[in-house]
Amino acid sequence: MNDRHVALISAFYDALGRADFAAMESCYHPDVSFGDPIFLEVEGRERVMRMWRLQLGVRDGLRSTYGDVTADDHTGSAHWTARYTFARTGREVSNEIDALFRFEEGLIVRHHDEFDFRRWSKMALGKPHGLLFGWTPLWRKSIRDRAAQQLDEFRPA
């Protein structure tokens, strides 16, 4: 167990819970990459932080909790829950997420979140779209394309 890396992961999630972007950014290596089922791959600290700003802007009242943080000298993991109102539909979401991390130079250089896309789409989009189409490749592509476009167009204030 690497206590310093455990503390780094905890500091990241504590900052996320406060929407403290400067503190979140300080946990990331300049060459960080982020991946999840919606954004797939986002490269570089500036772009990853833009993604977080976008996410926190479209999620009304994000409340997050985390636990099961473990880390060694090279990798780490955590489980976290994101609770929010999905702005596009006004629906309540409680997303269970497993996160994996890789460290370099004492910072997070790789952050990957994994969650059940179909379960998320049912909560965020509701019936019939999320329930009927949330598992289909075409629907996933549509969601991913929209997220990528929003990220490309998003300019934080």
UniProtKB/TrEMBL annotation:
Q: Which residues form the SnoaL-like domain?
A: 10-111
Transmembrane residues, as ranges? none
Checking SUPFAM superfamilies in the record gives: NTF2-like
**InterPro entries according to UniProt:** NTF2-like_dom_sf (IPR032710), SnoaL-like (IPR037401)
Q: Which Pfam families match?
A: SnoaL_2 (PF12680)
* Listed name of the protein: Nuclear transport factor 2 family protein
